[in-house]
Write a structure and sequence with these properties.
Strands 1-7-6-5-2-3-4-8 form an 8-stranded mixed beta sheet, with helices on both faces. It has about 325 residues and is α+β, with helices and mostly antiparallel strands. It is globular. It has helices spanning about 1-20, 25-35, 40-45, 55-65, 70, 95-110, 125-130, 135-145, 165-180, 190-205, 210-230, 280-295, 305-320, and strands at about 80-85, 115-120, 180-185, 240-245, 255-260, 265-270, 275-280, 300. β6 and β7 (about 275-280) form a beta hairpin. The chain has 13 helices and 8 strands. It folds into 2 domains: about 1-70; about 80-320, Endonuclease, Chain A (2-Layer Sandwich), CATH 3.30.870.
């Protein structure tokens, strides 16, 4: 009886490993690197000739965010979503490690042509903001104003971002360009909302006239870059495919997924403070299907439909000019 229970638990654990890395060769390489084991030692564990030690199980579950509750049968029928609280200005070592893991994964996925990234957003995504110092700083300023731990109001000019976070943001901007296929679906008011936020904080003297001009210049630079992307249909730095869409219905929050045959993950960006994510294969597939359906209520402005592209970017430049 005890052997049956142990076997069932071990089967569930190994199945969870394959959800993380569906290809056996990729799983073996990842386990060798993570556990510092020889190839044959990993084979024996996957064949169940040798059991994973408790220490190995904890290391794997922690590194790959595997829910041991799910493995042991607690909360059956529920899909586990993990939550990572974030401080985007002065992230802890754990938060930095989490963010670097995302960046390294994007760089790694460039080796797999089938890899696809998709972002549905009602606010300018961090992947793009990361390439523009003052626009990015404003998003961090706003985040600090809404979710910062200090009760003291910190003006835009006094927001200090750690050197490590600046380095990470720059690398994030490069990493998204490495993904073979990217899709962005934007809320039609994505720039309008950003401009309104800048105008509000300028009106309450937390953003100075000089700061406002710096943000304005960044937004114009971003629009020039995005217009170039839309015309070409690819990142000029890497020539990797990019599809840009404008949703015809409002979008309530930001969602994204990264899909590849080797690994997969989906994110919900909740309240700008929490990253909710799961590696559950079925949930990622469902998420992927649902997000693809959003194209039905969106207009593609990259490469095709030049008229819609011209109208969209013309309106956004007028909005930015109003700053």
């Amino acid at each position: 009886m005890d052997n049956m229970i142990n076997e069932t638990w071990e089967d569930a654990f190994i199945e969870a490993l394959y959800e993380r890395y569906p290809r056996r060769s990729q799983l073996i390489k990842a386990l060798m690197k993570l556990l510092l084991l020889e190839r044959e030692a990993v084979y024996r564990r996957l064949r169940k000739d040798v059991s994973f030690s408790m220490h190995e199980i904890v290391v794997i579950a922690s590194a790959w965010n595997i829910s041991l509750d799910k493995i042991t049968g607690i909360n059956p029928g529920q899909v586990p979503f993990l939550m990572q609280p974030m401080n985007y200005i002065t992230p802890s070592e754990q938060e930095l490690a989490f963010l670097w893991k995302i960046v390294h994964a994007l760089h790694y996925f460039k080796n797999f042509p089938e890899t696809e990234f998709m972002d549905i957003c009602n606010k300018l995504p961090r992947q793009l903001l990361a390439g523009y110092q003052y626009a990015n700083q404003f998003s961090l300023f706003k985040w600090n104003y809404q979710y910062g731990e200090s009760s003291e109001v910190v003006p835009f000019a006094q927001i200090k971002v750690s050197d490590e976070k600046i380095k990470l943001d720059a690398e994030y901007f490069k990493a998204i360009q490495d993904v073979p296929n990217s899709n962005f679906i934007w809320d039609p008011k994505i720039f309008e909302n950003f401009v309104k936020d800048v105008l509000y904080f300028h009106s309450v003297l937390l953003v100075s006239d000089k700061d406002k001009e710096l943000i304005k210049n960044d937004l114009h630079g971003m629009l020039d870059y995005l217009h170039d992307l839309a015309n070409k249909g690819y990142f000029p730095e890497s020539r990797n495919k990019v599809n840009l869409y404008i949703s015809q219905v409002n979008i309530d929050t930001n969602y994204s997924y990264t899909f590849t045959p080797e690994a997969n993950i989906c994110f919900i960006h909740a309240l700008e403070k929490f990253e909710l994510f799961t590696y559950n294969l079925q949930m990622v597939e469902n998420f992927r299907t649902w997000m693809q359906l959003k194209k039905r209520t969106s207009i593609q402005i990259s490469e095709v439909d030049e008229r819609s592209r011209i109208i969209f970017f013309g309106k956004q430049r007028q909005l930015v000019d109003s700053l």
